[in-house]
Design brief:
By secondary structure, the chain is an alpha/beta fold. The chain has 17 helices and eight strands. It has helices spanning 3-6, 16-30, 45-50, 66-69, 79-90, 94-97, 109-118, 138-157, 163-185, 196-206, 212-231, 255-264, 278-281, 292-301, 312-324, 339-355, 371-384, and strands spanning 34-38, 53-57, 101-105, 124-127, 242-248, 267-273, 329-335, 359-364. It has a four-stranded parallel β-sheet with strand order 2-1-3-4, with helices on both faces. Strands 6-5-7-8 form a four-stranded parallel β-sheet, with helices on both faces. Helix 8 (138-157) crosses helix 14 (292-301), helix 10 runs antiparallel to helix 12 (255-264) and helix 12 packs parallel to helix 17 (371-384). The chain starts with a helix and ends with a helix.
Length: 385
């Protein structure tokens, strides 16, 4: 098989870092590995791990392929959705390109309709997520969706997923979640032990790694190193920097625009309350139960997201974390055309006001057109704290 058959036709146009990603994914596949693309914190990673897949995040986090995506998708759509589809369309993402299957879920309307177009490019399995956590039937619906996913993987790839494999996978994922929450727990110190942007970048990079154990080990080692340095008097964050809880939409695509600006303007991110942060990492799988697949399903259904209605638990959880991390202020990121978080942000604002916590909403996308405005608003907000 020639390289042109293994790699996209535009491979030679890529920068070295992207070429390295393609070569690494290609070698992983040649050595017998399988890749499952994931786009949401509701994706039951333990099922994919147990089936022998490397579960890799595919969410588009920059503006590069959005113009290409807009040939098929409306412009007034979330940049994460457009970016994800654009990378599949242009074959510029190694993990999308080499994915054996992509696992979608019916969270927002934009995503679930995008999956219909994505299915013309890749093998896509869409899970039907209940839209309310307080209905008596919601748990059984989601448990059934995991059974369907398990059966689909077994039949499509001629494999068997055992309870022992699911339990082992759950233990590994619990270890990862504990490592992440331990890293964020460092931020409860006054001053925080780390810059929030360091944590965000490290966790984002971890979503593109083939081996979850190595990711967990890396985080655990960094926590130990940071604790030791802090005990010896190192203070990477000044005592006077304002403590910010960052909530709302996935922040991976706006780390430079929003998170770095916060920490360049006299603030420090002490808690990330988004799809890859503390909000989705606190829930563990009960690995002691006999019905391990059900336990995995139940763990994911406890995640707080604005697609759920009602969603009072998410708002209360955010306020509890604001107190726990001693936040001086809350900044909510709303990606353009993300209607669920945009509407729900008003309820977050009201609750923050009741608690006396300063709050600001930032609606943005992956472009650079509003960088100056974002910088001005963040600087003014932090100066006011």
């Amino acid at each position: 098989m020639t390289r042109s058959q293994l790699l996209p036709s535009n491979f030679d146009e890529f920068l070295d870092a992207r070429k390295e990603g393609f070569i690494a994914a290609k070698e992983f596949k040649e050595n017998g590995g399988r890749i499952a693309g994931c786009l949401c914190s509701y994706t039951p990673l333990e099922v994919l791990d147990a089936a022998g897949f490397a579960a890799i995040g595919l969410c588009g986090i920059d503006n590069e392929t959005i113009p290409d995506a807009e040939a098929d998708l409306p412009k007034n759509l979330c940049p994460l959705i457009k970016g994800t589809y654009g990378y599949a369309l242009t074959q510029k993402c190694p993990y999308t390109y080499f994915a054996d299957i992509i696992i979608g879920e019916t969270t927002c309307d934009g995503k679930k309709k995008m999956y219909e177009l994505l299915a013309d490019l890749k093998d896509v399995h869409v899970m039907q997520l209940p839209q309310a956590q307080n209905r008596s039937y919601a748990k059984e619906i989601w448990r059934e969706e995991l059974r369907i996913l398990k059966q689909t993987l077994e039949e499509k790839f001629q494999l068997t997923i055992t309870d022992e494999q699911l339990r082992e996978a759950a233990e590994k994922r619990n270890r990862y979640r504990q490592a992440v929450t331990s890293m964020y727990a460092l931020q409860k110190n006054v001053p925080p032990v780390l810059k929030g942007t360091e944590i965000m970048v490290k966790l984002l990079k971890g979503t593109f790694h083939f081996e979850i154990d190595k990711v967990s080990t890396g985080i655990e080692q960094r926590v130990i190193e940071a604790q030791k340095a802090y005990a010896q008097g190192e203070r990477p964050v000044h005592q006077d920097e304002k403590r910010i809880l960052l909530t709302g939409c996935p922040a991976g695509g706006v780390i430079g625009k929003v998170a770095t600006t916060i920490e360049d303007s006299g603030g420090v991110i002490v808690c990330l309350d988004d799809c890859s942060g503390v909000r989705t990492m606190k829930q563990m799988v009960d690995t002691e139960t006999d019905a391990i697949l059900n336990a995995i399903a139940d763990r994911y259904l406890r995640i707080h997201c604005s697609v759920m209605s009602p969603n009072e638990d998410r708002i209360e959880n955010t306020m509890e974390m604001a107190k726990e991390y001693q936040a001086d202020g809350i900044i909510e990121i709303v990606l353009s055309a993300c209607h669920t978080f945009n509407i729900e942000s008003e309820r977050v604002r009201r609750r923050a006001q009741e608690m006396g916590i300063p709050y600001m909403q930032l609606e943005t996308d992956y472009s650079t057109t509003d960088v100056g405005q974002i910088q001005t608003r963040i600087a003014a907000f932090i100066e006011m704290l």
